[in-house]
Amino acid sequence: MTEVMSDKDLLDALDFGHPGLESVGEAMSAGDLGAAKQRLIAYFRNRKDAGTEAVSPEPNDQPEAFSERGEQLCRELAARDWLSVADPEATPER
């Protein structure tokens, strides 16, 4: 079963010391959940420190995502004959 986090639980989990989230913390301290949510939305809409632009990284951009073992596994999977069945009796009906 999927557990859903409440708005309050999500806001309580934030670091209000992070630049820009101070006003969210103030609203939470005052017990004003509605204002805290509005301030968090405003933070996400207006922040300028979002980081990098959305791009598709290449393996060389993310060296930790590349390994020779991973490449070997990909080659083996790509070369596999996925339509052959060694023992047709072992394959359950679909």
From TrEMBL:
InterPro entries hit by this protein: Chondroitin_lyas, Hepar_II_III_N
Name of the protein described by the UniProt record: Heparin-sulfate lyase N-terminal domain-containing protein
Coiled coil: none
Native organism: marine metagenome
Xref: Gene3D superfamilies: Chondroitin AC/alginate lyase
Biological classification of the source: unclassified sequences, metagenomes, ecological metagenomes
Record domain Heparin-sulfate lyase N-terminal: where: 11-51
One Pfam family cited in the UniProt record for this chain: Hepar_II_III_N
Region described as Disordered: spans on this chain: 49-70
